[in-house]
Amino acid sequence: MKVACDVKGTLMGDKQTQVLKILDVLSRAGYEVTVWSNLYSYATDAVEELNLKAEAYSKRSKSDFGFDESQYFDIAIEDDRSQTYLAAKQFIFVDDIPEDMAQVELFVKELLEGQ
Q1: Dist CA 31 CA 36 (whole Å)
Q2: pTM of the model
Q3: What span, in angstroms and rounded, lies between the C-alpha atoms of 17 and 70?
Q4: Which secondary-structure segment (H or E) carries 102?
């Protein structure tokens, strides 16, 4: 299972603490974490700056994988709702993430139960 997380506006955004918590919960659930961005350097810088156990990638679209869903990320965390062309089966959009940190883990658990 794989999760990809955008950098600008997502990992480095107003809900950084919540996004990091989501990545922690998913990582503990067995997901491999990837940080991706349109600019590869943003991804590598974020991994280093935040000391994440994650791969850094440039964003990949569904067409990059020939629309083969078996190669998609299971989940992508993204701030831009127009980027549903990205290679992910499911999206978590930043504006849907609860502000209240006490609710974040429950939010992720409910998401995983719905898969």
Answers
A1: 15
A2: 0.94
A3: 30
A4: helix 101-113
